[in-house]
Design brief:
Layout: E1 2-8, E2 13-19, E3 24-32, E4 39-45, E5 51-55, H1 60-72, E6 87-92, E7 103-104, H2 107-115, H3 124-137, E8 143-147, H4 157-160, H5 166-172, H6 181-195, E9 203-209, E10 213-219, E11 222-226, H7 247-257, H8 261-270, H9 273-278, H10 284-292, H11 296-320, E12 325-329, H12 330-335, H13 337-344, H14 356-360, E13 366-367, E14 376-379, H15 384-408
The structure holds adenosine-5'-diphosphate.
Length: 409
């Protein structure tokens, strides 16, 4: 099946056109600066040069029209007819408590997505716009929603409840949701496959470290805890987000600096984390360069970043009562030799025997722990788009066979 995977943000749409049989992205690209006069579409067919088109793309509807047009383009496209797009899979950020798995988009699902807007006011509206625009341009193509939160929905109450009055959970659905679920699911399943054991028998910690960072405790294939919470702000230090914080601090800063709610929100989401502590950059590569040059604040930022990951490794090992594998993924997890080393050093007491040489020479999916290590430390590149494409294929195929058996009856 050929699936168009869409990740619709407020001013950008990332896409991949994936052949689920070969698991290859036949083309991929991105529309940026939607709503501006000089929007940019970057498109890369898998077998030809990357191209860039600059033009006016005023909304998501036009952006999707451009994406379909470039997929059909005689020079840069990969299909000859729209009908070759068998299905569309959408990354949807927040499924609330409603969705514990991927679903075929129906009117009922759209209503539930709209009901969840309050929980993700920045993310769900562009996801919804993307689905609506796709429906307009590809009216008879099935669409599937794959949720960032779904993998974590079945966490036990002890992990998802906060220490605030229970009524607030009931009234406003304030609980831990967790995000990056598609990635945590993918890499934990890959870890089980690499280790050649049923996932049901494994206790795995997955660390997705990108611009946004989160970890998950995956016990028997199920996420039993994760670091991001009600929003993607909680947990690890990230490029620009604070992660865990004594909540009184923000009230104190608001009072001292006379900040509005929106300014406080911006402070925590955009000016904190690596950029906040270092004052240099939100990008780990630049932090590492600054550390190498002896920049003290960059070193603080780096240390806070890795120390917190280390603490969560300990916490989640305790939460699961053991650990079989620790997985690094995401731009930082896959590429930063320094971060992986800092996290894994002096962890022999936990059964982690780190292999420094292997850590310096990583390639693809690989182990970075020594052969006598009780805990397998793995580097596994994530592939959220592939998961979305495969989920989409599964759900669309199921629907088709349901329809067929109903018509036979
Ligand atoms: P996103 O969460 O937006 O998908 P990525 O997963 O691509 O982001 O991760 C981006 C992060 O990965 C940035 O902080 C970047 O500096 C970091 N990164 C990428 N390559 C390296 C590298 N070689 N060494 C250290 N950090 C890296």
């Amino acid at each position: 099946m050929k699936v168009l995977v869409l990740n619709c943000g407020s001013s950008s749409i990332k896409y991949q056109f994936i052949d689920t049989t070969s698991k290859i992205a036949l083309a991929q690209g991105m529309v940026e600066r939607i709503g501006m006069s000089s929007a940019i579409l970057t498109h890369q067919p898998h077998d030809r040069e990357k191209i860039k088109i600059v033009g006016e793309i005023l909304d998501h509807n036009i952006a999707i029209e451009y994406v379909i047009a470039v997929l059909l383009s005689p020079n840069h496209g990969v299909i000859k007819d729209k009908k070759e797009i068998d299905a569309v899979g959408h990354r949807v950020v927040h499924g609330g408590e409603t969705f514990s798995g991927s679903v075929l988009i129906t009117d009922q699902v759209m209503k539930a997505l709209k009901d969840n807007i309050e929980l993700a006011p920045l993310h769900n509206p562009p996801n919804i716009k993307g689905i609506q625009a796709t429906k307009e341009h590809l009216p008879s193509t099935p669409q599937v929603g794959v949720f960032d939160t779904a993998f974590h929905v079945k966490m036990p109450p002890r992990a998802y409840l906060y220490g605030i009055p229970y009524e607030l959970y009931k009234k406003y659905k304030i609980r831990r949701y967790g995000f990056h679920g598609t990635s945590h699911r993918f890499v934990s399943e890959r870890a089980a496959a690499i280790l050649g054991k049923p996932i049901e028998q494994l206790k795995i910690i997955t660390a997705h470290l990108g611009n946004g960072c989160s970890m998950a405790a995956v016990d028997g294939g199920r996420s039993v805890d994760t670091t991001m919470g009600f929003t993607p702000l909680e947990g690890l230090i990230m490029g620009t987000r604070s992660g865990d914080l004594d909540s009184s601090i923000i009230l104190y800063i608001m009072a001292k600096e006379g900040l509005s709610l929106s300014e406080a929100n911006t402070l925590l989401n955009k000016h904190s984390g690596l950029i906040g502590i270092s004052g240099e950059s939100s990008d780990m590569r630049e932090i590492e360069e600054a550390v190498a040059e002896g920049n003290k604040k960059a070193k603080y930022a780096f240390d806070v970043f890795t120390y917190r990951i280390k603490k969560y490794v300990g916490a989640y090992t305790a939460a699961m009562g053991g650990l079989d594998a620790l997985v690094f993924t995401g731009g930082i997890g896959e590429n930063s030799v320094m971060v992986r080393k800092d996290v894994c050093m002096n962890m022999e007491f936990l059964g982690i025997m780190f292999d420094e040489l292997a850590n310096q020479n990583v390639k693809g999916e690989c182990s970075i722990s020594s052969s006598d290590s009780k805990v397998n430390v793995l580097r596994i590149p994530t592939n959220e788009e592939l998961v979305i494409a495969l989920d989409t294929e599964l759900i669309v195929t199921e629907q088709l066979s349901l329809k067929q058996s109903a018509s036979v009856k």
